[in-house]
């Protein structure tokens, strides 16, 4: 962090001048997460904070679909992303046209989409879900069959917890799909670590885990259990950012970095505030459709 201090000071000064709020996802590096963010959280938490904050200018330090979700819930505010190329393998695995084709193939079957999708895909969906409420949202559709997009592994995990039949898509998180059961077992056997895994991991990894949960659920589990050693089988920055909060817990590898999250840097956050770029623009009808699907989720519960 010392190396970053001049940038952190400059950003925090400019942020005040602009009256901006900086929001950082849990997968952002510690200098961003602890150094410049006013709000931190998972993708939905950030979107809800964008809706509820007083500022008219929001910088989302995260990937593109997260900035879109903030814009969907706060359409009258200016939402900036420091790098438009910060994408996501899950979000880019499916287009709105793909969703329309699936609906044509399965008439009358509702579509539940994971938050990790574009605004256009959300607008084609009946409801949005997170990894924390996926089972509840699927069951709230009230149908024997649901189209579940786009994460195949999350879909298989959800399918194991409900009687609703799921039509799945072949999307993968390129960060979580790389973990292996052998890595998980190694962490447990060599380091006596508890294993906490994100449901975007392959089924054989989830089978080894002591706890499977979303980004937010992982933090709550740690606070409850305070294990001596834990392997967070997820994006590396999770452990980096939680370390300060749990000084008695040792964080064991494996972890993988998300290359898209890494595109956000102190330098481009500064440039975003200086030049007011890159503003997220979404057509009004897409915002309305996506908002309806998000509201359906919020009615079920976070
Ligand atoms: O894997 C991701 O990108 C996650 C967990 C996003 C989120 O919902 O915060
Ligand atoms: Fe997408 Fe995976 Fe990166 Fe999350 S960690 S932004 S799901 S590629």
TrEMBL record:
EC number of the protein: 2.5.1.72
The keyword Protein transport is annotated on this UniProt entry: no
Superkingdom of origin: Bacteria
Family matches, as Pfam families: NadA
One Gene Ontology MF term: transferase activity
Cofactors, names only: [4Fe-4S] cluster
SUPFAM superfamilies per record: NadA-like (SSF142754)
UniProt pathway annotation: Cofactor biosynthesis; NAD(+) biosynthesis; quinolinate from iminoaspartate: step 1/1
Swiss-Prot/TrEMBL keywords: 4Fe-4S, Iron, Iron-sulfur, Metal-binding, Pyridine nucleotide biosynthesis, Transferase
Enzyme type, top EC level: transferase
NCBIfam families: nadA (TIGR00550), PRK09375.1-2 (NF006878), PRK09375.1-4 (NF006879)
Protein name: Quinolinate synthase
Gene designation: nadA
């Amino acid at each position: 962090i010392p190396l970053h201090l001049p940038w952190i000071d400059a950003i925090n000064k400019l942020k005040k001048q602009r009256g901006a709020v900086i929001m950082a996802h849990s997968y952002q590096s510690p200098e961003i997460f602890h150094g410049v963010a006013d709000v931190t959280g998972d993708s939905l938490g950030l979107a809800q904070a964008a809706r509820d904050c007083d500022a008219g200018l929001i910088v989302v330090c995260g990937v593109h679909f997260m900035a879109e979700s903030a814009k969907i819930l706060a359409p009258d505010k200016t939402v900036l992303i420091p790098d438009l190329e910060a994408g996501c393998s899950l979000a880019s695995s499916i287009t709105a046209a793909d969703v329309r084709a699936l609906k044509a193939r399965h008439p009358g079957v509702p579509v539940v989409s994971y938050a990790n999708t574009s605004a256009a895909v959300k607008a084609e969906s009946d409801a949005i879900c997170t990894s924390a409420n996926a089972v509840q949202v699927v069951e709230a559709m009230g149908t024997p069959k649901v189209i579940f997009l786009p994460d195949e592994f999350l879909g298989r995990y959800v399918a194991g917890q409900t009687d609703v039949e799921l039509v799945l898509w072949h999307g993968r998180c390129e960060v979580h799909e790389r973990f292996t059961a052998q890595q998980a077992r190694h962490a447990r056997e060599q380091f006596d670590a508890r294993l906490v895994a994100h449901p975007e991991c392959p089924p054989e990894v989830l089978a080894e885990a002591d706890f499977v949960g979303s980004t937010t659920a992982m933090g709550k589990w740690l606070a409850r259990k305070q294990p001596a050693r834990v392997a967070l089988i997820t994006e590396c920055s999770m452990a980096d950012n939680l370390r300060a909060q749990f000084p008695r817990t040792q964080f064991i590898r494996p972890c993988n970095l998300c290359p898209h999250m890494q595109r956000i840097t102190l330098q481009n956050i500064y440039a975003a505030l200086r030049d007011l770029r890159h503003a997220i623009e979404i057509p009004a009808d897409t915002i309305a459709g996506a908002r309806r699907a998000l509201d359906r989720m919020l009615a079920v519960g976070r």
